[in-house]
Design a protein that fits this description.
By secondary structure, this protein is mainly α. 79% of the residues lie in helices and 0% in strands.
Length: 149
């Protein structure tokens, strides 16, 4: 069974890379609202460093997830299946815990219009969903993707 991809995955890989790199820049740039949010929280109480650490780990794992996404789009095996399984599991874990800023933003928007929150949540899922699909298949369907290896 030959595994073929069309240009859609390659285009998505490029667009998702731009989004992910932009999010990382916002997370670690002292001029961004995200950076200011977490650092103001930490100024109020040192315990809030945990929220910042979770968000930073989520951001870093999103950047790392660009690697299997790229190799999935271009049909290239890289490193081992076990390594990508662990990266995928860590990414899901930190995705569920590392969005304190975004949660507060959605809560504040929710008070003005619930449909904007629904739209934003749908937009988020639509933009990140294919990345999870590709990374899951790259990590857990290695034998199907690369049958001769």
């Amino acid at each position: 069974m030959h595994w073929t991809k069309n240009w859609a995955w390659k285009i998505y890989c490029f667009i998702f890379a731009l989004i992910t790199i932009g999010n990382a820049a916002a997370m670690f740039s002292s001029d961004s609202y995200v950076y200011v949010y977490y650092h103001i929280l930490m100024a109020f109480h040192p315990q809030y460093i945990l929220l910042y650490a979770l968000a930073a780990a989520c951001c870093i794992l999103s950047l790392i997830s660009l690697i299997p996404l790229f190799f999935y789009a271009f049909e290239i095996p890289f490193l081992t299946q076990e390594f990508w399984k662990w990266i995928f599991v860590l990414r899901v874990s930190f995705e569920l815990t590392g969005h304190a800023f975004e949660i507060q933003l959605l809560k504040s928007v929710y008070y003005s219009d619930v449909w904007i929150v629904v739209f934003l949540a749908g937009l988020f899922l639509a933009s990140i969903g294919p990345s999870y699909y590709a990374c899951f298949h790259y990590a857990f369907r290695w034998d199907r993707l690369f049958p001769s290896r």
